[in-house]
# Entry
Amino acid sequence: MTDARSDLISSWYGDMEKTQKMDIPAEWLAKLKEGFNSARVPDDRMCDAMRREHADCGYIACPHTSVALAGADDLGYFDNDTPVAIMATASPVKFQKNCTFALGEEVWTSYENSSSYPANAKGVNNASEVEPLFLDRNVDETLEDAQARWTEALKEIIEKTADA
# Structure
């Protein structure tokens, strides 16, 4: 069972699907602003936050977390003694190119060779690259036939992987 607020939010998303924009009524926007703040963070500020976090704490933050750090700084959350909690949203290993750009090759290579670098990521880095699988649909093929063919192709891959 849904409540009135869920229905209201669903209607906002429905309107957004139709209009490609979200117009939240002024009274609701005012209520949201009472408890939430936001900031826009350009790439250079994200990179600065990533560098500062690494320099101050030795921590490599992913780009998303670095945006949160820069946004909190821009909003003045670090200007007083009030504790601030920022949840890291992803591992930096997912963003090697971005982190290397922000921190430099030397820092990234040092991280890659450290015990902090996730073992699973090392395994992925050392694995052979696999050719991508394209599941296309032939022009004279029904969707159901294509899906059946795709299912069989994926089952074969899973069986080969399980046997390896």
Q: What stands out?
A: The chain has a mean pLDDT of 90. The two ends are 47 Å apart (CA to CA). The helical segments are 4-19, 26-35, 43-57, 63-74, 96-103, 105-112, 119-126, 143-163.
